[in-house]
Amino acid sequence: MLGKGGTDWMKKIELMAPAGNREAFIGAINAGADAVYLAGKKFGARAFAPNFDTQEMVDLVKFAHLRGASVYVTVNTLVFDDEVADLLEYTDELVAADVDALIVQDLGMLDLLHRRYPHTPIHASTQTNAHSLAQVRFLKDLGASRVIMARETSLDIIREIKKNVDIEIEVFVHGALCVCYSGNCLFSSMVGHRSGNRGECGQPCRLPYTLLKDGEPVSEESFLMSTKDLMTLDRLSELIDVGIDAFKIEGRMRKPDYVIQSVLSYRNALLSKEKSRPFRSDDEIDKLKRVFNREYTEGYVLNAEAHTLNNAYRPNHMGIEVGTVKSFSHGKVEICLSGDLSVNDGIRIVGTEEKDTGNVVSRIIIGSGLVPIAHPGDVILLDSADPVSPGSVVLKTLDHNLVRSLDIYLDPDWKMIPLWGTARIVVGEPMEFDIHDGDGHNVKFKTEFIVQPAQTAPMDQNAIRNQLGKLGNTPFYWESLQVDTDGNGFIPVKVLNEFRRDAIDKMTGIRANLRRNPTIVPESSPIIVGQGEEFTLSAKVRTAEQLDACLDAGIRVIYHEENLKIQPEKHPEVRFYTQKRRIWPEKATFSLSESSLVSEVGSLWASAHGLGKNGKLLLFGDQFLNVTNIYTAGLLLKSGLSGLTLSLELQKDRIQNFSSLFIARYGGNAVFEQIVYGRTELMISKYCPISKVMGANQKNCHLCEHSDYSLKDRMDFEFPLLNDGDCNIRVLNPKPLCLIDHLDFFRDSGISRVRMEFTVESGKETESVIEAFQHALRKEPYSLNRRGMTYGRFQH
């Protein structure tokens, strides 16, 4: 079996492949994947892939296990309370199907599933945004056996984690990159009502934008937020040396040829390193480009500079360049080739003036004749209904011959398993079968049937071997089959067939490791958490003018960014919280303020282990902890939060029931906060379009501190850009959220605080918003210009 019997060094590294359909699944295993990750029809972060129903997964798990591969199922969406019962019914089926692990994002569900299935590994999804040692420690304590690191995590951080935490670490080595830290993106959800945290991402980051500086364009419209694809084939040794346990290929939405070629290329690279033989990476990279690429980057994991991750040119498959247009006339385009081109290849002609033109090559004309394939240096004619300009670049986006060569891996019987067997058949004794497969599995089988002496013609060795050798529709073949017999017995063919089937069934069961008796532990009784507080209006600020406006208006709960100078001794009536960064700076010393607003779980672990300031800390959870159900709320409160903010992806009916469900489960209420005003942070990114466009191409260029920058989309909406203090860019919604008409609803629903968030508002704008909300809170008439504001996901 491919990948088996290697050195201990190689056994530590698992090559994982994606599968969105059966063909990709079979192709991945045949090409050499150690594991395949996939999703069912629900709760998976690729809702628009075909995916698999439960019976399909039962069959695929057996297929994989027989061939020595593992199957991991993604249950990596945020979960609402009304979905939990359905989720548990679904995961019970998955565990019964003998899947090898569940991949989970939702923290409450991760905790619940670990306790429910103590013998089923739970992997923390990259959607948990783990990018620090403390976060990984929190997830391990929660029950994760493996953490899939955020793509922004560097090798230095991963090395530190592997040295200090006994847990499996998985990293992406190939495929699409999100421009936002995973699990922190609300762009598609808020703009298009398609939640990335629910598997519905509409990829607005792949659309064209124009960068504005102080309201004026400083770039052409291009794909400023679209990333290149990750490709680490040339530098796997560095990842291996750090001790990473699993290499992951992205692409559950991709075609089988992409999956197969990606697995082949990375398997070849790993085998070459194992056997210390030369590896021609250029050939493999060329093949990878042909199946899909948006240009390549080595990614943050290998310390690629942030500005190099963007492909502003195209957001889709780039293929490979194969020629240049010389002329166009009468429906024929003349091309000078720089690469091979065959009939049935797909091409795109990137016009210098016109829009791109794409088609499948139906015929190739050289001179006055037709050819099936043309080569570099040939000048050819192709049919084209659309005019194109001389100088236009010709890209091959489908390599028909390459795809056809990969079709062999789609055959379910392509990868057969060798068996070595010895059958002993002697008169007066039971029949015995001793089978092993070379992977350490052994079957010793003895029948109740006693071999009888032949009355006429005995069954000789060849006849017995011929009957036992018929393995039919199984994944096995005999590498060696020895028959030891005295040559005097007679065995009915039916008995021999049952003898063979029973032995093969036992080997199948051993290889498939079909437990079929999943351990499900009932939930323990939850504890009483606490109680809420009096309904109040809070505010988050980032400028001194906003802070002054809040203090002058008498706001008693204020969250502020770390760079603001606060004098709490002058305002003893105000409860101040320092807003801690969502992303841990790699080399910064970690600290927590006495009262902190936190957005990631590393802060909880750090606080519990005394890494913050001395004394009792008051930690409040922000919206990016993704609290969409009471299980996550209960977990985080028990982990050290004094209260928390509900996710902006919760809709009205779910908010209405949240507090009552929480009380029913935990025996008490808690301090829950809801954001009711502000420009929602749609994403936070390590990549900065300002630095890229303005030519700084370096971290800490400080350009954003001296001018106001924004991204303008095709609809002329302008998305403000803000720095987080460590050169991560925050993209804001151009439409402020405004739920001023629903304050009574939140009060009646058991929400303790309603928060206004101020980002780019002036002092005067801040004053007017606060005044309106205070009037509304007192049920008095208010004045607020609500043009261009949004309800977000509250009513959708």
Short description:
With about 800 residues, the chain is an alpha/beta fold. The protein is about 25% helix and about 25% strand. The strands form eight sheets. Strands 1-2-3-4-5-6-7-11 form an eight-stranded parallel β-barrel, surrounded by six helices. An eight-stranded parallel barrel has the order 29-30-31-32-33-34-35-41.
What does this structure look like?
By secondary structure, the chain is an alpha/beta fold. It folds into 4 domains: 9-177 and 228-302, TIM Barrel (Alpha-Beta Barrel); 320-410, Elongation Factor Tu (Ef-tu), domain 3; 418-512, no CATH class; 536-679 and 735-777, Alpha-Beta Barrel (TIM Barrel), CATH 3.20.20.70. The chain is 27% helix and 25% strand. It has 21 helices and 41 strands. The strands form 8 sheets. An 8-stranded parallel beta barrel has the order 1-2-3-4-5-6-7-11, surrounded by 6 helices. The protein has an 8-stranded parallel β-barrel with strand order 29-30-31-32-33-34-35-41. Strands 9-8-37-38-39-36 form a 6-stranded antiparallel sheet. Helix 15 (544-552) packs parallel to helix 21. The longest helix is centred in the middle third of the chain and has 20 residues, at 493-512. Residues 1-11 have low confidence and may be disordered.
